[in-house]
Specification:
The protein is of the alpha/beta class. Helices cover about 45% and strands about 10% of the residues. The protein has an eight-stranded parallel beta sheet with strand order 1-2-3-4-7-8-9-10. β9, α12 and β10 form a beta-alpha-beta unit. α5 runs parallel beside α6 and α10 packs antiparallel against α11. The longest helix is centred in the first third of the chain and has 21 residues. The protein is globular, with a radius of gyration of 20 Å. It starts with about 25 loop residues before the first helix and ends with a helix. The relative contact order is 0.12.
């Protein structure tokens, strides 16, 4: 394969272009699907990382200029950095995505649409350079821009053949079950899309205390809120063609699922409408999500998640490079957690290969 030369996709003066470094394509072909001695194969099987961000220079520049109060610094990134992490943690393939705050950080409608399109074209070129190593979840403009969002879904699915779509937990205070977003869900359902849902700052991104930036404490709750909204609004059941992945083990959802299902169908039944699930349907819909392991490989999280979630809904993720260097800590914790070889294989790769037929053809 010849060296990939990415074009400048940021606007003049908006920061340098990002492109894969010379020689990286040969490096990524050097790994075999399995590494390590035969006695340890079940822990070193090639993983599929469904939660892997990229921060091209043009996006890094916009984030830096926006000064979003995320409570952490914006990480530097390069294709080589992703490949190094993948080699270190025995990751066969990574599905690339745009992290919070997403394309909306660009400001006006046209700028947001342009940023989403540029990011998608960039990610598509990375995947084209090595389709066995990379996939991508396409970025969208904010969902309140229905015309722009639907147009970008069609471009991503029909033209770029994206592996899936990234959505955020809320848009200007509206969670994903909002009636306003039904046209988007209808379009995604038509394409049987895989959707990766990532938490984002709530509508009022002010720290309640300087010790509690939103990614630290609120992001897990945001995932639970939007998942609960999708279920109780009936949207999850209404669009069964959509396969939805929740970040970070589903956030606090596994912990509150029983409370949500029981109280939602009794004490708070009055808030539901004709499309809302009833009785056992609520728990059934809650368990129909997929759950990635990004920053969620610790024993206390896994004890709850594995006791509740169906085995075929578990996916591996790193949250690179936004995990702040803790990728190794959580990866090690996950590998040290006791589970049988079949379950580990499902968690690390088999479930993802079922979800992504293109990767299954390459790694199955």
């Amino acid at each position: 394969m010849s060296k990939l030369q990415l074009n400048q996709i940021s606007k003049p003066g908006r920061g340098p272009k990002s492109s894969p470094r010379a020689g990286y394509i040969n490096r990524i072909r050097s790994r075999s699907p399995f590494v390590g001695d035969s006695d340890n194969l079940e822990k070193t099987m090639g993983k599929i990382d469904v939660h892997h961000h990229i921060v091209p220079d043009f996006y890094h520049h916009i984030l830096s200029a926006a000064k979003i109060p995320v409570g952490t610094s914006i990480p530097s990134w390069s294709p080589d950095a992703s490949l190094d992490l993948m080699n270190k943690f025995h990751i066969d393939a990574a599905i690339l995505s745009l992290s919070a705050p997403g394309a909306m950080v660009a400001g006006g409608r046209d700028e947001v649409r342009s940023l989403a399109r540029n990011w998608n074209d960039y990610a598509s070129k990375l995947r084209a350079a090595s389709p066995e190593k990379f996939g991508f979840f396409a970025a969208l403009p904010g969902l309140l821009d229905l015309e722009g969002a639907i147009a970008e879904i069609r471009h991503a699915v029909l033209d770029l053949k994206a592996d899936g779509i990234t959505l955020f937990t809320s848009y200007e205070g509206k969670y994903l079950g909002a009636k306003d977003f039904e046209p988007v869900w209808a379009e995604l359902d038509k394409h049987h899309a895989v959707i990766h849902v990532h938490p984002v700052q709530s509508r009022e991104p002010m720290f309640t205390t300087p010790f509690l930036p939103q990614p630290l404490i609120d992001f897990p709750h945001e995932s639970a809120r939007t998942a609960s909204d999708l279920v109780l609004s009936g949207r999850k059941r209404q669009y069964p063609g959509c396969k939805i992945i929740l970040s970070h083990g589903g956030g606090t959802l596994p912990y509150i699922a029983e409370r949500l299902a029981k109280l939602g169908d009794t004490i708070f039944r009055g808030v539901l409408d004709e499309k809302s699930p009833r009785g056992d349907q609520i728990m059934e819909d809650l368990k129909s999500f997929y759950f990635d392991s990004a920053i969620s490989g610790s024993a206390n999280v896994l004890d709850t998640l594995l006791n509740w979630a169906p085995r075929d809904r578990l996916l591996y993720g790193t949250d690179f490079p936004f995990a702040g260097g803790l990728e190794e800590y959580f990866d090690t914790a996950l590998e040290d957690y006791e589970m049988d070889g079949k379950l580990r294989g499902m968690y690390y790769r088999d479930n993802a290969l079922t979800l992504f037929p293109r990767l299954r053809a390459l790694h199955g």
